[in-house]
Design brief:
single chain; 329 residues; alpha/beta; five-stranded parallel β-sheet; 33% helix; binds nicotinamide-adenine-dinucleotide
Length: 329
């Protein structure tokens, strides 16, 4: 079985090698899957992709011409893959639904804490001999109301961590799971109540037609002035332009994001010395109350190990002509 791994960075290879079954041959391509790189899959029955790869209809058609029969994404989210097109070209698609919800939940908490306690400004002051506490006042997380949008695996891990801080947690999900009340301390509510009552709102839903721009100007207007927004899920959950406006007029006090709606040509690569031609992103980066990380919430040793193992499990399942709950088509 020959597998072509796109968007494959050096840091992933040892984990993939560790879990590669005997008889599998891997081709590691650093470039993302695009029309310009699709030919790299020549001779491979399986391609493995990541969240920034372009797995649209046209690309799937090209992959099919090359003889590719299975797409194994190394991500949880699969909004980058046209599943209808994959089914049309008789291609199997599998994801890694559960590699480490705690890795992403910890990152969401990290962004909340760092923004709340003005960690970056404190560190910058420290480097400049400024030991004044001016501008660094925070609030106890346990005194705050925190709204979690999406109570799947990552949302639940985030609630569990917030329970440790003693925060009052509210949650909204299209499919509430009442049994969670047995193990987690929170309350389900409707989206409008969550928006109007929360001091911090953290997004943990996938990107789909129902969640695209779930945070837009209309929703921002329903929020408490001084709210903090955290997004570790997908960039397009937030209309960045609307959030930027509200950050500038003070309605939103702070924004912590690990994902950005136009991140595809920016994140995951070293662009030192280059210009970033994205005025929205450039402006966002100038604001002191905005903390951005480049899609690194998943980036822990545990997560990389689990991703590699599950990806090869998925490919082995495909090669046996079998299926599992990880197969989307
Ligand atoms: P999950 O499938 O376990 O949970 C998602 C939850 O969202 C479910 O409870 C579902 O009912 C709910 N939901 C779906 N559509 C909704 C809608 N329209 N309105 C309200 N609720 C809705 O997923 P998860 O494992 O918790 O992951 C969530 C997302 O996190 C992923 O889809 C992915 O985009 C993102 N993610 C980001 C990183 C990162 O490194 N930043 C890593 C992994 C996952």
């Amino acid at each position: 079985m020959k597998v072509c791994f796109y968007s494959c960075h050096d840091y992933e290879i040892p984990f993939l090698e560790r879990h590669s079954p005997r008889g599998f041959k891997s081709k590691y391509i650093k470039a993302p899957l695009r029309m310009s790189s699709v030919d790299e899959a020549q001779g491979c029955e399986v391609v493995s992709v990541f969240s920034r790869d372009d797995v649209s209809t046209k690309i799937i058609q090209e992959l099919s011409k090359l003889g590719v029969k299975c797409i194994a994404t190394r991500s949880t989210g699969y909004n980058h893959i046209d599943l209808k097109a994959a089914a049309k070209f008789d291609m199997r698609v599998a994801n890694v639904p559960n590699y480490s919800p705690h890795a992403i939940a910890e990152h969401a908490i990290l962004l909340m804490l760092a923004l709340n306690r003005k960690l970056i400004a404190a560190q910058e002051g420290m480097k400049k001999n400024n030991f004044s506490l001016k501008g660094l006042l925070g609030r106890n997380l346990g005194d705050l109301r925190i709204g979690i949008i999406g109570t799947g695996r990552i949302g639940q891990a985030t609630i569990q961590m917030l329970n440790g801080f003693g925060s009052k947690v509210y949650a909204y999900d299209l499919y509430p799971e009442k049994h969670l009340y047995k193990t987690l301390d929170f309350q389900y509510t409707d989206l409008d109540t969550l928006l109007s009552d929360s001091d911090i709102i953290s997004l943990h839903v996938p990107l789909n037609l129902g969640t695209r721009y779930i945070i837009d100007m209309d929703q921002i207007q329903k929020m408490k002035p001084g709210v903090m927004i955290i997004n570790t899920s997908r960039g397009k959950l937030i209309r960045t332009e609307a959030v930027l406006k509200a950050l500038k007029d003070g309605h939103i006090a702070a924004l912590g994001i690990d994902v950005y709606e136009n991140e595809h040509d920016i994140f995951f690569e070293d662009h030192s010395g280059e210009e970033i031609h994205d005025p929205l992103f450039q402006e966002l980066r100038t604001l002191d109350n905005v903390l951005i990380t480049g899609h690194q919430a998943f980036f822990t040793e545990t997560a990389l190990d689990n991703i590699a193992q599950t990806t090869f499990d998925n490919i082995s399942t495909y090669s046996r002509g079998a299926t599992s709950a990880n197969f989307l088509c």
